[in-house]
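User: ok so my PI wants both of these folded by tonight, can you help

Assistant: No problem, let's get them done. Here's the first:
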Amino acid sequence: MKPVVQEVTQRIVERSAATRSAYLARLDRLAGRRRGSDRMGCANVAHAFAALPAPDKLRIVAERSPHLGIVTAYNDMLSAHQPYERFPDLIRDEAARLGATVQVAGGVPAMCDGVTQGLPGMELSLFSRDTIAMGTAIALSHDVFDAALMLGVCDKIVPGLLIGALHFGHLPTVFVPAGPMSTGLSNTEKTQVREQHAQGRVGREELLQAESAAYHGPGTCTFYGTANSNQMLLEAMGLHVPGTAFVHPHAQMREALTRDAVRRAVALSRGERFLPIGRLVDERSIVNAMLALLATGGSTNHLIHWVAVARSAGILIDWTDFAELSHGTPLIARVYPNGVADVNQFQAAGGPGWIIRELLAGGWMHADVATVDAEGLAAYARVPALDADRRLEWQALPEVSPDDSIVRPHDAPFSPTGGLQLLTGPIGRAVIKVSAVPEDRQVIEAPARIFHTQEAMLEAFKAGSLECDFVAVVRFQGPMANGMPELHKLTPALGVLQGRGFRVALVTDGRMSGASGKVPAAIHVSPEALAGGAIARLRDGDLIRLDARAGTLDLLVDAAEWAARTPATLDDAQREENGHGLGRELFAGLRRNVRSAEEGAVTWL
């Protein structure tokens, strides 16, 4: 085991001692109770199972067979979640074969950031995570289940389901993905068309044609953004059936893997293999997830989400932990936007199994962790296949990758350090995804241009007033201000300016998504502007130095002048805009109570 992994893990264990101990004590009290149908009143039991067929009622009440609850994020607005429409029937069928029973405990909301990007609905996106967690809690609150299956894939959905499940940590839980869509228009070509449209060189018709060729069928988007980073992290934590992340929704193996998830949930629900999720997810498995993220240059969103996930299990992590691990973790995958390959090509080159095998082999992962597979994390270093009788088996990966432009061995990485970096300085603490930023753009020193909305910056770009070196400061985009939307609409404009030779960067208290790309972006700045953070004191023309190599975000302004400044504030019109319309009024309480980005932007503490 690498010393940095041991040191960070031990620090997390010590920091979390009181909260983790209290969490496990609560878990054990709940796990030690009698089964739901045995401890509930007769009227409660009758209500719970009124709609089930008589044989299922007999299995639950008289035979005391395992009873599984499904929490599903199904809707057919999200391409990644549309396949879940058929999963409950499949799960019921497999459970019946095993003598178990199943109920859909509840559905949770699932919104698509791709649909809402740059629109008011995006201001609900981050808060949808905690709403999903609460929906998961409501679904499981009927308290009749012996284990649970979580059906969800995308950005805020998986963290929300996981947070909710960890608040029912006494239940064994298996996550069931649906897989990626087939490869369409390449991410590189899509980006080129977006930049051409930003410059007015192609019209809406050409842009829509390109976007529709990229996003064209059921499954997750094929770039390595937050959704697909979710799947990598769940594999690294052992919460999936091994190797299930990137199998297509309609592949024959997908059905076999889903059926196997039911078998795992039944096995974990009782007997020697009883394994509640709150025990499975411990300090070591959280560190394993962090390492998998860093080794693959995954989504910056997880520096928010996994802080919240860990806290749900009584585990306290922060951005310094990520930064120290990143300095000692090799980057061994290049998947768009940190390369040109999509997740289907990543899977063909070895996928999550390759990453886990190499990190284990190099001493960058805790091997001695519990997983939903009885063999532990070593099982996740293989890939699933169907034998001649269409039964699942797991095979060893080749020693040499079929494509070393996508994945590399741990001792010949793309970079000796991970793909994410912590930035600190007088403006605050921020994170940057460096894995896709060219070497010659990792240090930017330029005057600030201040904007309070992404629309204002895009208007300045269209007006031609940004044809220069500058650092775009887009503030009042944090959780308290407007729900911390992703500012991905800024990427094409900034990419065009960088392509013209200007030295540009972004500094914001908002998010930039798992698709953060080639333009250096200091994001999640904390404290945020509305909380009185130093970003609110910046002025047009202030000289900012972003140094991704040194991990600094410096301000080259006279100290006395800086100290004398008062923070800028939002005007009444902007406050009104941020708080009303398209349901934003309903989230006012969450905006008031939300913690900082580095504290996971949690709303439930």
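One down. Here's the second:
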Amino acid sequence: MRFQRIIRISLSALVLLILILNTTGLVNYPFVQQLEDWTYDARLNFTRFNTVDSRIVIVDIDESSLAIIGRWPWGRDTLAVIVDNLFDYYQVNTVGFDIVFAEKDASSGLKAFEKLARTELRDDLAYQRAFEKIRPSLQYDRIFANSLQGRNVVMGYYFKPAISAGETSEIGLLPTPITKMDAQWSERLSINRAVGYGGNIEILQSAARSGGYFDNPHVDQDGVFRRVPLVQTYQNYLFSSLALATTQAYLDQPPVELIVETAGSQNGKTYYALEAIKLGDYRIPVDNNGSVYVPYRGLEGSFPYLSAHRVLTRDIDPVLLKDKIVLIGTSAPGLLDLRSTPVQNVYPGVEVHANIISGILDQRINHKPAWTIGYEFVMLIIVAVSMAILLPMLSPLLAAAGVVGIGFLVIAGTMIAWENHLILPLASPLLLIALTFMLHMTYGYFIESRGKRQLAHLFGQYIPPELVDEMSDSPSEFTLDGENRVMTVLFSDVRGFTTISEGMDPKQLTQLMNALLTPMTRVIHKNRGTIDKYMGDAIMAFWGAPLRDSEHARHALYAALGMMDELKIMQDEFRSRGWPEVNIGIGLNTGAMNVGNMGSEFRMAYTVLGDAVNLGSRLEGLTKFYGVNIIVSQSTRASIPEFTFRELDLVRVKGKNEPVAIFEPVGHKNDLEINVKSELTRYKQALTGFRSQNWDKAEVDFFNLNRSDPDRKLYQIYLDRVVHFRDNPPGSNWDGAYTHTSK
């Protein structure tokens, strides 16, 4: 016993050591970071507001605007009207462009007119005078710049993390930087250093109040936008992101200040760590790279969206925009500004900036301080020691409860910290809990509890070996005791077996049944079915026990179809051996059944009982009447939505008063040929006419169907019924059901 305790403690220590190496950075396990990202996403989604912040409005270059105004890029004269409307008519406070205007607008045709003025029409005074008169209206960049002049407008641009061979490192004009970085800070801080940029043309950037970049060099490895840098440096100058610059403009340009913690020295040099960015009275916590965790409010639409074309035509209530921050961006898929975020896989990039601005104004930016490494180290030790002490002392059930309790405490602590805007590591403590518990239970399973594995083998006579192996993984889940489950039952029977048996000697009959039942059983086992019993020429099987199967109806149907395919293959062998042709009928029903080991003290069998089982047997018996191979019930059909079925009838089977809809499987919806779909549509119309007692229409429809497919017995059945009901009307209370008096 003492040796086993030592083994268990050693297992806990091994897991602890592996995770501490990752925490201290000595070893890097990418999957741990991926798990941490997932736990971060879960916390964010669990606590998100799911409310709309109306202080920030997104003027959206959406699909409808592109359809009305024209494809992007639009003329700068159009953008000038939008800006003028926003400030003059709607009286917004600040406008930020999540767009870069890196090239001049030549869409007005000004260059062509200037060329004519210099060449062919240089001596045409009338042309020269007219051209000079209209020239200002064709200078779209100047018109746009005039609309920006003296207004609270922030232009967007982007930094380049690398420059390809032959690529220009500087395009356009950068806005005025926040500051020139101190040499020591620039060298020691981990703020991203850009090597190039793509800016706006000079006339536009000079006219705007400021500018902010919208690229994100800190996208996580899985491509998700969790963090965005508020600052980057270029040639030792510090620049703002679009979100920070827009917030600064909205707050009337308070100064931006870096809050840097200095401590001790490393190799004779002072240690610098960026803690926060101060924007006037607002303190924004950031990581050492100057990034913030984006405080997503909710799914796409957490801010009001207004189509750009409505701003252009002033088709918006001014109250919606007065004194607001406006971000001009796009949600149109074709303009490629969609991002993957923790709250949504496809999310407009412009709304990422809006979330950051909202978080800054509300002071709700979550922060992961540098000391969380120490917290994680201590937490791992506490959890490991607690589990090493508790697990060997407790039974498996109590151990599981204890593990859940420890996990709950860890999660509760991190959620309390989250509500106080602290991001504490969660993945490594939970991983430690899970791995330690698994190792302890695995050790106990193989060394201390071998007898528990024997339970699954009790079912070996009913199910295939591969399912027995699955059951061995969790033997406590299975029992021979009776229980009620929703399952699917299958009945298969050989048609005309009495006639077949009378024409064969006992030896041949035995060989035929073995040749038939063996491949049929193989098909059932392949589709995860449990053989209940063989009843002479019949097979009874079920799905959903002893191994639970959420797709029991689907597996049963595929087994039935596979049995019919196998039967076609066997016919050639039967003919070659001089045996008669064999046909089978199959009935399937899904419903609540009692399952368990039933019988007497002399003999027990693992079987199913109940009305749902009886109905499955009745359905098999109806296959010959309707001339089909397989009949399924309404409940089975509803469980397999990807399959197409032909409704055969609404029937009352022997022993049941309520009518039951029965169906024949036709095929997977994706595999149906056009002519089959057409026939099913025509049949549905005919059936509708029949049930509405429109005998003339039903007769014509079924007659045409029967003529196109005379081998289908079903159509003749309905034609016979039409003749009967025309002479013997069923009455207004008729429910359309047909009563079968035999099994």
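The first helix runs from residue 2 to 23. The chain has 24 helices and 27 strands. Good luck tonight!
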